[in-house]
Design goal:
Layout: H1 2-30, H2 39-53, H3 62-76, H4 85-91, H5 98-104, H6 108-129, H7 157-189, H8 198-221, H9 225-240, H10 249-260, E1 262-265, E2 268-273, E3 276-282, H11 287-291, E4 299-305, E5 311-312, H12 318-325, E6 332-338, E7 344-350, E8 352-355, E9 362-368, E10 371-377, H13 393-406, E11 411-412
Helix pairs in contact: 1-2, 2-9, 3-9, 6-7, 7-8
Length: 413
Amino acid sequence: MSFYSNNLKRISVALVTFLIVLTAILYAFARFKSPPQDKKQLLTMIMDGINQVHYSPQTVDDAFSNKIFNEFIKRVDNNKKFLLQSDIAELSKYKNSLDDEINIGSTDFFIAVISIYNNRFLQAYRFSKAHLDTPFNYEKDESIETDEDKSTFAKDTIEMEDGWRKYMKLQVLQQLYEATEKQNKAKEKSDTVKIKSFTELEADARAKVKKNNEDFFKRVRELDETDWYAVYLNCIANIEDPHTEYFPPVDKQNFDIRMSGQLEGIGAQLQQRDGDIKIMSIVAGSASWRQGQLKAGDVIIKVGQGAQEPVSVEGMRLDKAIQLIRGKKGTEVRITVRKPDGSNLAVPIIRDVVVLEATYAQSVTINNNGKKIGYIRLPEFYTPIGKQGGRGSSDDVKKELLKLEAENVEGII
């Protein structure tokens, strides 16, 4: 019993620590009308929060500095495909001084890493697509290290380009193998299947890899300096302990939604596909559902706040478009959509609280060979963080238990 008791205590301490640190940081944010944009101010605020409420804050010294250096480099270039050995050597001057930077709120290291990375990113993009227009030499015997722990940074741009050539060749070979296996299995089932030649399969594989590669670089290119700074701050937070996280405003908002099962917005579930932001479904009972003009399949092209000039969201990142659509209950948002028939329609909607019922605990009874069995489904834990009158998972499960008990079930899953 002592083993389980002690472990439960440790788990409880970890959870409480996480919530205390999170609460302190969010409380600090609350002093501002919006989260501080100044990086120095934000870094200082987070370190103050950790030092004041963390149960065992680490000493900010050279050892701490080394951990941050290694962790941030790893998160920026985990597969060692962008930075060169010379870049790491240049950045190493910060290895033992990040503790001093943190104490004064400096961001020199962060700026230096992102500046170098952005330049290498453009080079890597050129190298990655340079060899996809013509077939690779599949007769050449060569290898590539895919284990990130065993791989090394390229010594120069020549080695970097060759590394990307090999990586693209590996991707094509994997696609080619899968297509060949699929074709062989189809051939076994039917003699009427059209068989493609190796040349055709190889061309298809390169085309697919080319598209996947473009999609990858497009997604990374959309990360702005704020996104990367959140990564840097999380390196610092996670080094304190794995349960301490920095939530940038968007992530904090999404966390609150997951934990409460509620949000303020229009109640349309969106997905980005081929560059378009498309409505996948409308939440029953939501503001969009009551207004009635938005439909699944509509493509959102503009978002306007009340009477303000609408902003185009075509080509915009989905999370940024969502931030334009969400807003306080009672405010108006104007969504301009392109209908499946090609026509455009501007739809005014008054935002409201959207309740995500699928988040909450639910129960049913199952008839199992004449025995009535209760079944409770709890998709995830939730609690009314910062809200009055919200729902909590423990209270809801209790209600479902009492309901099933009243139905005289013989057992509960």
